[in-house]
Structures are given as structure tokens and as C-alpha cells.
């Protein structure tokens, strides 16, 4: 090892960061959520809504469109910013709970109907693999209903961004405690129960570049690496588009092995990580050599180095671009920034660049869209990747402008642009038709339009059966605390139940 020097691969991409220049949060976000994928969601949602076996649902449902789906995404974004105790609280008229932005986007009934009908692929799980020797053994694609979205986002994340040299692979769980064949228990994560995703991220920014959602029926064959360990197959599939470009990949000991290190080095990719000392092809001396604290022992085979260092416990590292050099490490968490004994350089680089997935998860945590309980795990996973797409959008804009952008300010600007551009184009059977730009303080359209006339409420199935008028609680009376006052009239434009006397005028004239 005295004469061995690790040699890094030449990094080939001439430029990194956003592939094209974005001027606003909205433009960066729409680079992931294009008209094609939104059109798919609209078509599948309308198709699923037509199959709902409920006469009441069918009587009140009207087809959605791309604008309304974008407004639904913005509604969830605001739920990540404004923490409400329940979904129903978003539509409360209680002065202590009332939040205008939610009620401007949707009525409670329309929101519930959209959530019930929302689909991405209206089909049952399909058989993806069947063992010819065992006719009873079948493998189903459990992600079939979400597969079009996952495939689209995986492609869009990769096509919009060029990673910098240092990247990392690790798993990230999405919290889910309900029933699912894909749920796992991960002891080392803050989210103990959840759906595990293997992710490749940029180490410095946390940009999610590619991912694989783990399912229990997943095999190395599904990952396009027959005969390989699952950990090796995951790495090969995630890193495949980046081979022979000089990237430096950081991973933990679940993925690492000398054989994988050799494969990556031969394919122009450097490899650094912790290593299980009991792994195959690890020199026996690495495990058995007696070491005192601060001492290390290293061996190399060609370009692959294995090093064992004794700290409070013994740590074994593997690298294709490090020798056995050491450096001083500063413990910055202490006021004195005291110096600690010499630490192998491979350890310092690993601690610095292995944090890509952790950086991503830390930035998502304050604004989790999937925090509210979902009945379906696929909807939980969809909201998770929606949240990731927002984070990636901010990184795109930050790369384009070369400026640090506050996460909260970015999300508020994004919601503002979505509602300003699309809310007025949503289907018109709504409680309010308003402009929602927070920057211009527009008033609801009931102050502007002059088509507000009292009309009878549309009859329901029950009222038709009894040959009676349809009655609902008056909005103004309910707001003033009178829960018993009902009316058979509503505003023709606003569709709000109102008493003809006093309430109709008060609703349309008061701010």
C-alpha cells in the first residue's frame, strides 16, 4: 500500500445542472407534469368516475380536466404548508379554522368526489413473470395502477438534469402502516414502517435522479440482472445510464462487494462505501489483524482497495479511487472545533458525499404532502413523488438562476402561478369562481359578475321521489350560527344555498 495511489476516473460531462434554463417555479414544475401525463390522469379519472356504482355520485359528477387536476395538486401543496388537523377542517367556516385558500380552490363535495375518482391506470395487476416449471407460481406487478406515473417521472427526472460527479444510492421509505404487500420494517430509518424506494441522488443537492419502488415479488430477473443478488441488481439498474462517464458512487454495506467494485471500475465509474467484513473476497487479514484505536490496515487488488480502521468500533471501507492516505478531521459540532487524530481520507469522503438521500428527505420533511392519512397506499406513494418533483423543480430553478431559493417561497410562488393560470379554466359547477393570486388580492368573482339570480335548488333523488322541493341550509345563516334555517333557493352563478330575504343580498355585497 505504500506505493499504491488510487486513481480517479476522468469526469466526462462538460456541464452539470439543469439541461435548459427555467425562468419560474411554474415552468420548472411543468417540465415534470406535462400535458401528456396530466391528460392521462384526466382520461383515467373520468373513466373511473363513470364506473362508480352510486346514483348520487353520478348525479353530481361532471368531468374533470387538466386545469382542475393541477389545482388539485396545488391543494395538496398547500396542505403541506398549512397544517390542518383533518381534511374536513380545510372547508370549515369556523373563524378559528377557516382558511380561505382551500375553499377558493374546491368545495368539500367536489374535493371528495375527485379523490374518489382519481385514477392513473384503471386495470388490475398484471402477471409479469410466471415460472414454467411451476404453473401455480405467479408474479404480479403490484405497482400496475401507478406504473404510468412512475415511468414518466423516472424518465423526466433523468432528462431534465445532469448530475455532478458525486452521487449516492440508498433506500428511502414512504410512511405507510396500513395493509400492503409492499410494506416493510426498516429499523435504521426514522420512518420504521413504509414502502421502500431505492434512490440515486446527487450528493450535494439531494436531486432525485432515478428510483426503483421495492416490492416483495421483485427479483433480479425483474431488475434485468438474472442470477445476481438483489442489491447488486438494484445498483446496476440505477447506475446503468451513467456508466463510463467518470461518476463517483457512494453506497453503504448492504450494496457493496469487491465484485461489484470491480464491475463499476471496469465500466468507468468509481465506487466508495462501507463494507461488510464477512463479504466474499474480503482479505482475511482485514478481519483478523489486531488494531488499536486510530490504527488501520489496508490491502488492494488492482484498483480496488479494502481498508479497516479502528475507531470506537471497527469500520471496513472499500474504494476504487482511494489509497491509504489520511487527513485531519474537524469536529465542527463542538465550539472549539477540536482536531481529532488522523482519519483515512476514504472515511472523510464517504461521510461528506453519502448524504444525498438524507439531504432530500430533510428538505421534504417540513412540507410532506402525504402526511394526511390516505385510504390507498398507491395514493400515498403518488403524493410522495409529487413532493419530490417539487423539490427537484426548485433545484432546476436554482441551477438555472445560480441563486439560492427559499423552499417555502418557491412553493408559495408555485401554488400562486398554478391557481392564477388554471383556476378560472376549471369546470364551473363550483361554490366559488375566484382568482386566487395572493399577490394581487383579487376579490371573488361575485363582486364582479352581474349574473347572480336566485333559482330553485336542483332536485335530489329523495326530493324527486317525494315530489317535493330540495332544501339545504342557508350559507349566510349557517355562518352566523343558525344551523336550522333552510332554503330551497340558491344563486344561479355561485350555486350557494341562500335565503331570498336579506341573505341573498348580504352574501353578494359584503366583503
Question: Quick one: how many beta strands?
Answer: 19
Average pLDDT reading: 83
Alpha carbon gyration radius:
28 Å
Intertermini distance:
79 Å
Provide the low-confidence segments as ranges.
Answer: 130-138, 430-449
Number of helices: 17
Quick one: biggest sheet?
Answer: 9 strands, mixed
Oligomeric state: single chain
Shape: elongated
The percent range for strand residues is 15-25%
Percent in helix: 25-40%
What structural class is derived from the secondary structure elements? alpha+beta
Gist?
The chain has 511 residues and is an alpha+beta fold.
What features would you describe in this structure?
By secondary structure, this protein is an alpha+beta fold. Among the domains are: 20-124 and 367-425, no CATH class; 258-352, no CATH class; 445-509, no CATH class. Helices cover 34% and strands 17% of the residues. The chain has 17 helices and 19 strands. The strands form 6 sheets. Strands 5, 6, 7, 8, 9, 10, 11, 12 and 13 form a 9-stranded mixed beta sheet that branches. A hairpin with a 7-residue loop joins β6 (183-185) and β7 (193-202). α4 runs antiparallel to α14. The longest helix has 25 residues, at 377-401. The termini are far apart. Mean pLDDT is 83; it is low at 130-138 and 430-449.
Question: Main attributes?
Answer:
34% helix, 511 residues, two-stranded antiparallel ribbon, nine-stranded mixed sheet, 17 helices, alpha+beta
